[in-house]
Amino acid sequence: MREGNVKKKILVIGSGPIRIGQGIEFDYCSVHCVWALREAGYEALIINNNPETVSTDFDTSDRLYFDPLTLEDVLNVIDREQPEGVIVQFGGQTAINLARPLHEAGVRIIGSSNESIDLAEDRDRFEKVLRELGIPKPAGRGVVSMEAAEQVAEEIGYPVLVRPSYVLGGRAMEIVYSREELQRYMEYAVDVSPRAPILIDKYILGKEVEVDVICDGRECLLPGIMEHIERAGVHSGDSMAVYPPQSLSPHLIEQIVHSATRLALRLEVRGLLNIQFVVDSQTDTALVLEANPRASRTVPYLSKITGVPMVKIATHIMLGRTLQEQGYRGGLYPDSPSIAVKAPVFSFLKLHRVDINLGPEMKSTGEIMGVDTDYPRALYKAMVASGIDVPTEGSLVATIADPDKPEALPIIQGFAELGFRVFATEGTARFLQEHGIPAQAVKKLHEGEDNIEHLIRSGQISLLLNTLSTNKRIEREAARIRRASVEAGVPCLTSLDTARALLLALSARARGEPFALATVDEYLHAPGSLKGSALHG
Amino acid sequence: MPRDTTIQKVLLIGSGPIVIGQAAEFDYAGAQACRALREEGISVVLINSNPATIMTDTEMADRVYIEPLNVEFAERVIARERPDGLLPTLGGQTGLNLATQLSDAGILEKYNVRLLGTPLSAIRQAEDREAFRELMRQIGEPVPESWIVTEEWQLEEPAGAGIWPLIVRPAYTLGGTGGGVAHNPDELYEIARKGLALSMRHQVMVERYLVGWKEIEYEVMRDANDTAITVCNMENLDPMGVHTGDSIVVAPSQTLSDKEYQMLRTASLKIIRALGIEGGCNVQLALDPHSFAYYVIEVNPRVSRSSALASKATGYPIARVSAKIATGLHLDEIENAVTRKTLACFEPALDYCVVKIPRWPFDKFVLADRRISTQMKATGEVMAIDRSFEAALMKAIRSLEVGVYGLSNKTVPQMSDIQLEEAIRVPNDERLWAIAEGFRRGMMLEEIHALSNIDPWFLRKLQHLVSLETRLKLNGKAIARMAARLLQDTRESATPATENTGTEHHLIARLLREAKQAGFSDRTIAEFAEVPELQIRALRKRLEIVPIYKMVDTCAAEFEAATPYYYSCYDREDE
User: Fold this and answer.
1) Segment B219-243, tens digit of pLDDT
2) Please, which residues 471-500 of chain A have a Cβ atom closer than 8 Å to chain B?
């Protein structure tokens, strides 16, 4: 072997192939971890099997092992290299899943211990921790039988969020509105066994908030809080999100920082912890939905917009340095002067027979970021960059489920005021007309020629608004309409929250306010007001 | 020629968000290009909307813009930064399309920005089917019968030509979006209509569908001095008809005769020269398995997913060298960054086999159509390296993280014989396991070949793996016994006392070594032996069946590598 033996070695576990739920962001994290290790004077080794990545570039690490990410293959590399330990926090769920078997095989896990990881990932143990700390979570618990499931659901009341206890990117998660649906879920969607309970939680229709915590065991740094634009029920990977938060009360922010800090300390995190909250607007409290004891998909995005090199700091913590020694201190990092909106990007065009409606199962393949000096303009950039490139006037088609109609009214009115011509299916059109919006009715699919699908395919439509219905027949038609929009290249929004955000973005565009244009650094360090500066030139 | 010193500042356009057809490979390419340019003292301006990329780190480029990738914002970046040049071929189809739009809108001219590397005219000639066919005709390279269609009425001719099936490919789309195979006029009209709507140029090509032909790719590089080399060639295990992004791919090719290899290599070099590419390019060819006939299918005049794979398969950094070429350097002036002794004009040599398997999203989209064809569906891919095709394949399988560690998955054993035949005949994400199951059920190799058109060479390798699997299963109990015996008493010597156990010992030890050399995982062997995985590991170590590590060094160990990059194998000599 080459020189190497003088320096201490650390093995970084990569994240494997790009898939839905585990994308390029973990390659970004792995590479930054390797860089930080090398900077700290360690020999950084990496094992990964994805040929598309920077982490498998031959000069990223000191030594690259192009091998599978299984226990066997990782142990083989460890036998050969005898590293100080292994870092599993940056390779997504692939790497974190290896923590326990590696630990059991006697390998040292650097950063949060196997015990700490297990405490966050095992739902039962995690809930006990929350109870102990007095941090609220949505009501609910795990069940192993149909009878128990029904009982719990009755107890906490429908709708409930159901999912298997060990969750991978929201897999097989559903929002269930009735006993009948619950029975169907328990029967068909999952294998229930005492070893794999099903979790039934109260579904809270509120705002979701996400934080990434960097913890050294004594202090916790929160680089930023991200507020989701779509309400709970849409997978966090499929939601748009904004940094810094736009509608959270100072009280709530304080509560989130406090809960996150106590949780990270109690879990004895060394490095990163991602926590997702849902806000119960009635009580203005943030309830914990889940915690991931690793770098999350938002780390690159937050690092870039806050200027806090999160992976680097976390890696140095794992090597024994404190936040303070690195020039940081605990608490929420001051807000950046700019606003950043993260938006998901989908690949539906390539996937036939896939419904594009958003829900608790993640469907996006990638994401982008829009940055500007205010929220509407950052939103506009995010919309355009994610492919929702809607002109400030044109035609839209609305087909809105009954319970959503009142909420949709001011949004559609806003589009009409911008200059949009509004088409709608019969019920929606009647509702809009009754409320003074000139809407033209179009036929539903089963009503024959010149129906809504033809209209969408005609090329005259620039936007489809379609909220989900609980009526199965309506939903079957709606799924076809949504597919038509994908194939015709017409943006389709299934959440009124996204629609409201788009309206806000288009209004900014229509007012003709100039958009900022600045480098990542300038957005961070720009003096108080970027507005009217040369940046708009 | 030394590098062009009039180039001081270069704009790089990234590929934006990860979508099917454009994954992390362009971050890899862009990050390499940033480094390669800055090494030459060039200041790099970068624009990309995807923050989850290394290329958008302030360490990588001098000026990083995370802004939407459209003409409006790109023009403003150009106006503000005034770059001398734009390198358009490293940001995938997204980057290339944006560069084309900027050029067409006169923005590059207005701000005096030069396009670096491959000239736009060459890119157009490669991407516009008609222009490309014309060029191929001029240089005498064969192209399949085809029709360019821009209006629906033009479909009459191919529909009436009596050549079925026909394949429809739209021009200027990501990963072949909107393409498909038509078996009759109705299907032709349906697919072509969709393709026309999706093509940036409102143009589709309809052409002869080459059922059962081999699909071969060559990664070639050329500099402004007309020096051209092949970096590597690759063979798709799935014959023509499956998008190369959805194919299992092997590097180097395994089933070509030397004559075939040289014939296609010569054609690829002729094509890159005729196009006047300056940088890397991917040439896709179809080869008739029964004669020396071949057709040129298409050329990707830029860095691509295939070039990322070829770079990792050989250790030759295509994106880096392409960026260097764009600054005016010639291949014989660029150092090979792996050996630091050889130059970029040396063609890599491989003494191992590389297998790539696509990663499909059907675990998430359980109701999606799992058939694969000309429209890419994979979100990512895995690659594995080993001394043999079998071992590389087995490693790639367990890299996929789809809960499969060997030759059988959960669904194929449940299939009826008819369903199984269908799963072998029609390409889908489970075909590999269906073929293994076919062999298990006693199907003949010829039968599977007739159904799948997969080359018998690959099928023989799979058949061999299945027979080895059968032997492992039959000897499962013996393996377990041996593990129990050897691991119980650590003082006992690894050589057995009695003659009976001695024979069994040697047979099992040999079988285990053979299985490991063929890529079987401990986990699979443990399942057959019904013991915990770590017992197999301990047993192996006791028997000194442990992997050694070989180096990927671009030169088959001829020179010493400076940047170690390893793969495991159960061979003799460690590097």
Assistant:
1) 999 999 999 999 999 999 999 989 9
2) 487-489
Chain A residue whose CA is closest to B315: A58
Considering only residues B564 and A345, tell me which one the structure prediction assigns the higher pLDDT: A345
Residue range(s) occupied by CATH 3.40.50.1380 in chain A: 370-510
**CA atoms within 13 A of residue B126's CA, in its CB half-sphere:** 28
In CATH, the architecture of A370-510 is 3-Layer(aba) Sandwich (3.40)
Which residues on adjacent β-strands are paired with residue B228? B222
CATH of A3-110, one of 3.40.390.10, 3.30.200.20, 3.40.50.20, 3.40.50.2300: 3.40.50.20
Q: What is the pLDDT of residue A161?
A: 87
Interchain contact, B399 vs A52, CB within 8 Å: no
Which residues lie closer than 8 Å to A144 by C-beta, 6 or more apart?
A: A192, A193, A194, A197, A198
Ramachandran angles phi, psi of A137, nearest 5°: -140, 160
Q: Using a CB–CB cutoff of 8 Å, tell me whether B197 touches chain A.
A: yes
Q: Write the Ramachandran bin of B389: left for phi over 0, alpha for psi from -120 to 50, otherwise beta.
A: alpha
Q: Does A431 touch chain B (CB under 8 A)?
A: no
pLDDT at residue A432, rounded to an integer: 96
pLDDT tops 60 at residue A153: yes
Are B89 and B301 spatial neighbours (Cβ–Cβ below 8 Å)? yes
Q: How far apart are CA B219 and CA B229, in angstroms?
A: 9
Instruction: State percent of chain B over pLDDT 70.
Output: 95
- pLDDT tens for each residue of B283-342: 999 999 999 999 999 999 999 999 999 999 999 999 999 999 999 999 999 988 777 778
Q: Alpha-carbon distance A301 to A313, whole Å? A: 15
pLDDT for A218 equals: 97
Q: Phi/psi of residue B350, each to 5°? A: -115, 130
Backbone angles phi, psi at B495, to 5 degrees: -95, 125
A64 touches chain B (CB under 8 A): yes
Contacts of B108 (CB under 8 A, 6+ apart): B78, B86, B102, B114, B115
Read out DSSP for A257-306?
HHHHHHHHHHTT-SEEEEEEEEEETTTTEEEEEEEESS--TTHHHHHHHH
| DSSP line for A482-528 | HHHHHHHT--EE--HHHHHHHHHHHHHHHTTPPPP---HHHHHH--S
* Inter-chain CB proximity A519 and B63 less than 8 Å: yes
Whether the pLDDT of residue A171 is over 60: the answer is: no
Q: Flag whether residue B539 sits within 8 Å of chain A, measured between CB atoms.
A: no
- Over residues B365-379, the mean pLDDT reads 86
Which pLDDT tens digit goes with each residue over A368-409?
A: 999 999 999 999 999 999 999 888 889 999 999 999 999 999
Architecture of domain A213-336: 2-Layer Sandwich (3.30)
CATH 3.40.50.20 location in chain A: 3-110
What's the pLDDT band for B368 if we cut at 50, 70, 90? confident
Q: Does residue A350 sit at the B interface (CB-CB below 8 Å)?
A: yes
Measure B26 CA to nearest chain A CA, in Å.
8
Closest Cβ opposite residue B68 in set A94, A351, A384: A384
pTM: 0.93
Interface of B with A in 149-188 (CB under 8 A): 175, 177-178
Determine the Cα–Cα distance for residues B107 and B95; give it in Å rounded to an integer: 15
ipTM for the complex?
A: 0.93
Q: Helices (H) and strands (E) in chain A — how many of each?
A: 18, 23
Q: What is the pLDDT of residue A530?
A: 52
Q: Say how far apart CA A170 and CA B533 lie, in whole Å.
A: 29
What architecture (CATH level 2) is domain A139-202?
2-Layer Sandwich (3.30)
